[in-house]
From TrEMBL:
Zinc found in the keyword field: yes
InterPro entries linked: Coq4, Coq4_euk
Pfam families noted in UniProt: Coq4
Enzyme Commission code: 4.1.1.130
Family note: Belongs to the COQ4 family.
Function text: Lyase that catalyzes the C1-decarboxylation of 4-hydroxy-3-methoxy-5-(all-trans-polyprenyl)benzoic acid into 2-methoxy-6-(all-trans-polyprenyl)phenol during ubiquinone biosynthesis.
GO MF, one annotated term: zinc ion binding
UniProt key word Membrane: yes
Listed name of the protein: Ubiquinone biosynthesis protein COQ4 homolog, mitochondrial
Mode of membrane association: Peripheral membrane protein
Length: 301
């Protein structure tokens, strides 16, 4: 255990050094604001106008690259590879490390995110989401209003989910390591609807619920991080949950992922008042054989 802890610290230290990583206080609600990350310019020999011009062009290009969005941390291919390997190891060692899960998703998800964005652009609701780029946090969602909704509504079920587990929409981390500005919001949207997906599927945020949700997300998004979590997550299940997973939830999650509407194309914020059963039917979401969280008027453990 001590060896694992030492390896964890060494891995994190190496990642920080290679990526020049600094903890950012940029919130997801400020993603649209301008962020300028300046670097110290090297001294240019004034006697060589041509060399100075080339240097200025490179500097301006680098500044534009660093200004893609607030909190952006540019990486080289080598750094992304190192980040992917290091964060994957950390995720296996401690699945609760949200920052490492996010780093793994961002460092390995480029092609999956491009494909996901294309799917969103082809769907009317997905296209509207890309155009309006709604952000899910306590500035944009009235949590008290959700708590006042009838018990059988999607909004009230989400309120129950947040309150029961002590979660907040503000807890989702911003994006840092994606170098394509067109894909930043796609990753953010996927990340911010994760708890809504749990609510819709009736899955708690324990290991069994996370594995089931990750299968749905892996099938729908193609993100390598989701696939890895779905494949390796069951190794951490206890005997009781492993039996439930094998006998019940694995096949159900596969069917949900294949048959349901692409959930990243769902404008969840417009469905708070909708009956949960009606919403599931509309999205072709098969109810869990035995729901594991409270959804609507049914209270199950």
């Amino acid at each position: 255990m001590a060896a694992c802890a030492r390896y964890s610290l060494r891995t994190q230290s190496l990642l920080r050094k290679l990526l020049c990583f600094q903890t950012s206080d940029v919130s997801t609600s400020r993603l649209g604001s301008l962020f300028v990350h300046r670097r110290h310019a090297s001294t240019v020999n004034q006697d060589y106008d041509e060399e100075q011009s080339d240097s200025e062009d490179k500097t301006n290009h680098q500044l534009r690259y660093d200004e893609l969005y607030p909190g952006h941390i540019p990486t080289t291919p080598f750094q992304r590879g190192l980040l992917a390997v290091g964060s994957a190891v950390m995720c296996l060692y401690n699945p609760a490390r949200d920052d490492m899960i996010c780093a793994l998703g961002e460092s390995t998800g480029h092609y999956a995110l491009k494909n996901l964005r294309n799917k969103m652009e082809k769907d009317p609701e997905g296209r509207l989401i890309l155009e309006e780029q709604p952000v899910i946090n306590t500035d944009t969602i009235d949590i008290d209003y959700l708590g006042s909704l009838p018990e059988d509504t999607f909004g009230k079920a989400y309120w129950h989910f947040l309150n029961k587990h002590g979660f907040s929409p503000d807890a989702r981390l911003p994006v840092h390591f994606i170098d394509d500005p067109d894909l930043v919001y796609v990753m953010l949207r996927y990340r911010q609807i994760h708890d809504l997906t749990h609510t819709l599927l009736g899955m708690p945020p324990n290991m069994l619920g996370e594995v089931a949700v990750k299968w749905v997300e892996a099938i729908q998004t193609g993100l390598p991080m989701c696939g890895m979590a779905a494949l390796f997550g069951p190794l951490r299940l206890g005997p009781k949950h492993r039996q439930k997973y094998i006998n019940t939830y694995f096949s159900w999650a596969i069917r949900c992922g294949r048959n349901s509407k692409l959930l990243v194309n769902v404008y969840f914020e417009k469905h708070w008042e909708k009956n949960m059963d009606d919403l599931r039917q509309e999205l072709n979401v098969e109810p869990a054989p035995v729901p594991l969280v409270r959804t609507g008027q049914t209270n199950l453990s």
